[in-house]
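Researcher: Good morning. I'm working through a list of sequences from a screen, and I'd like to move beyond sequence-only analysis. For each chain I'm collecting a predicted structure so we can compare shapes side by side. This is the next one on the list. No need for commentary yet; just the structure.
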Amino acid sequence: MAVLEGMWQHNYIFSNGIRLHYVTQGEGPLMLMLHGFPEFWYSWRHQIPEFAKDYKVVAIDLRGYNDSDKPPEQSAYVMSELIKDVEGVIKGLGYERCVLVAHDWGGAIAWNFTYAHPNMVERLIVLNIPHPAKFVEGLRTPQQLMRSWYVFFFQMPILPELWLQSFDYEAVGNAFVNMAIDQNAFTPADIEAYKDAAAKRGALTAMVNYYRNIFTSARQQDWSLLDVPTLMIWGEEDTALGKELTYGTQEFVRDFQLRYIPNCSHWVQQEKPELVNQYMREFLAG
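Model: Good morning. Structure tokens for this chain:
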């Protein structure tokens, strides 16, 4: 599709025993971008060229997504494997550390990776994903349980995949258009790109398997005080993750900044790209 082409280059890297697809643009320190569900590298289309002015920007397809390998086993999508993927990408690209930028499921991986390998993350930028401890805390409240209904639906076999692919992947397209405050942020070509990525053989089961392992991945652990400077950007009208999940995050991060964006949905870097890029720039310059 024409929308997938740009100044960036497409490439592959072997990490943790699998082949991951990524796009890259620019030279310099590494900025690694991790997307969420039901997305792929394309979620960062507004950030890649902007930050390629100063960084080697690499936006990967997470395992199971788009053009990356899709191991069939559910156990392939536990958090420990996802952390190893990120570690292998950074080292495989010839770097020791990176600026890690992540959204949604990519953000969950980024939080866990930063705790596991703090020396490999120069700065952490997470978008509309809470600290893991705050998410677990939120799941104990009725309001977040209602918002997270799909997490429990995705525990079922087969039905989630059938639902996602029905009526030409209508649920995938609706995830963007129906949640967005500014629906013009997504063109018909954008939606088709997301549908096409989800339609690749094995992708739907892989994507849902992240959720099937979510309660294993979210097991209680000691979330000590994180020393990596961290920026959280949050679209306030997120219907999947309540704004209250951001409250108290500073208790877990020594150097923490939080920027709310009003009138903006879960898809914050796609709906308000100029503001997201500005807040990222200010944080990286600080």
